[in-house]
């Protein structure tokens, strides 16, 4: 390996390290985004269940139409 080759590889290293960090950061951001979407879905589902439960309680306590 010549001195030129060593110099070339030394110049390449910071760019390669930066690219690797960028790829890892993008992967982590995507993973966090998917997890966030899943949590939102669960919260929405729980909210719908609570609303349905409250409506059932209201209908049982006050049969007939109540506005």
Strand content: under 5%
Order of helices and strands: H
Largest sheet: none
Tell me the number of strands: 0
What do the pLDDT scores average to? Answer: 84
**Cα Rg:** 28 Å
Count, helices: 1
Structural class: mainly alpha
State the end-to-end distance. Answer: 85 Å
Helix content: over 70%
Unreliable residue runs? none
Shape: rod-shaped
Report what the structure shows.
By secondary structure, this protein is mostly helical. Helices cover 88% and strands 0% of the residues. It contains one helix and no strands. It has one helix spanning 3-61. The chain is rod-shaped, with a radius of gyration of 28 Å. It starts with a helix and ends in a 6-residue tail after the last helix. The mean pLDDT is 84.
Strand and helix layout:
Layout: H1 3-61
What's this model, at a glance?
This protein has 67 residues and is mainly α.
List keywords for this structure.
67 residues, rod-shaped, 1 helix, single chain, mainly alpha
